[in-house]
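Hey team,

Filing this mostly as a record. A colleague (T.K.) asked me to run one chain through the structure pipeline before their review meeting, and I want the input and output archived in the tracker in case anyone asks later how it was produced. No errors, nothing strange. Just documentation.

Input sequence:
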Amino acid sequence: MKIGLISPKGSSWSNNKYFQEYWHNNPNAASYRNYWTGLGTGLLVVAALTPKHHEIELVDENVSPIDFNKDYDLVGISFMTQQATRAYEVADEYRKRQVKVILGGIHPTVLPEEAKRHADSVVIGEVEYLWGKILTDVENNRLQDFYRAEKLVDMKDSPVPRFDLLDNKKYLLAWIQTSRGCPHDCDFCAASKVYGRTYREKADEQIVKEIESAKTVFPNVRYYFADDNFFVNKNKRRRLLEKLIPLKIRWMAQTDVSIAEHDDLLDLAYRSGCIFLFIGFESLNAGSLRKVDKDEWKYKRLEKYPEYIRKIQSFGIGVQGAFIVGFDEDDSSVFNGVSDFIVENKLYGAQITILTPLPGTTVRLALEKEGRITGNDWRSYTGFDVNFTPRKMTKDELERGVVRIYQKITEKEVFLKNMEHFKDIHKKLLHHCR
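Output structure:
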C-alpha cells in the first residue's frame, strides 16, 4: 500500500486579535517561535511500525502543502485540538477521493465519536499495539470503526521514530520522547487521562539510539524531550544524563520545580547540554493552585518558587516558566502579578496562556456543567483565546490582559537586564571550572 501520514496545520498562534497584533509586531516573538518548531514523534513512530513493503510519505502541513492528488491507498492523520478543524477538512477531502482515512492522536482519543464522522476508522489511545492489526484489516477490507488500546504500551516496545522522513532544512528543533504518563492530575490537562498516571520510561540505550538517529538527519538542531515530566525518576535520569554528555547536544525538557532540590542533577543537566527547563508554575494564586492540583503538590511549593528559580538558574540552566490566567480566583490584578513575578525573578523565558477548557479535562467538565463554555470552534483552542465566561473579568479584559504580560516581559530593558544576569552566572561557572 501507499500510505500518507499527515500532520495538519493548526492555529497555534491564536485568533485573539490583540495577541496577533503583538505577535507579528514584536521582534522577540520570532525567537520564541523558534523554540517550538519541529514535528512531534507520533507519526514518525507510526511510520517505524509500518512494514517495509508499504510505501510511506509524511507531510507536515506547517512546512509543506498537502497534495490531494497523491495516489494514496490509506491516509493517517494525527492531531491535537487546535488542529482538529483542519484535520477534518483534510480527512473529508481524501474520503471524497475514495481514500481510506484513519484518525488518531489526543483529540480523537478523547472525542472518538466526533472524529468518526470524518473518518473510516479512529484510533483511541496509543498506537504501538494496534497499527499492525489495522494494516492487516485494511489489506483484507475489514477495517473496524474504532481501534481502542486495551493496555498501556511498554515503552521498550516503541520503535525508533523515522526521523529520515523529515526535511532537515525545515526544522530547528528535534523532539525526543523518553516516557509517557504523568503522576500529577491537573484539572486543565488531559495527559494523565490519555496516557495514565503511571510513569513509563524507555531504556537509556533506546533514548541514546534515538538521539543518534536524529543526529544523522538534524546534525545541528536543538533537542526537546517531549515528556510531561522529564525528571520524575531522578535516579534513572542521573544515569541518562551521564550518557548524554559525550553526545554533545543542546537540549530542553519539561519538569516540575522539585529539580531545584537536587544539585547533582542540575550539575549533570548543565554538563550534558541543558539550555532551559520548562516548568509549569501555573498560578501564583494559592486558591487557584489548590483547585487545579488535587494533591496540592504545587500549592505546597508556591512560597519557594523564587528560591527554586534562583537555584536552577545559578547552574546556568534557564527556567522557562509556564503560567495560566483566567482561573475563577483571578481578577484583573493577575496580569501585573504574573509579569512582576517574571521580571523580578529574571526568568529566562515564560509562556503565559489563557485557561483553555480542552476536551478530556476536568476543567471542561466543570465549565460545561455550569453552562460557561462559549464555543467549540477548535481553531480557537490555542491557549491564547477565551472559550468560556470568566468569573471575575470580561472576555475582553482576559484577552487584552495576557498580551499586557507579554508586552511587559519582552521590553528591551527587561531583556538586557536578563542578558546581564545570565552573563554573570556563566562567568561564575567558568571561573569555578578553572
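Quick notes for T.K.: The chain is about 40% helix and 15% strand. The mean pLDDT is 91.
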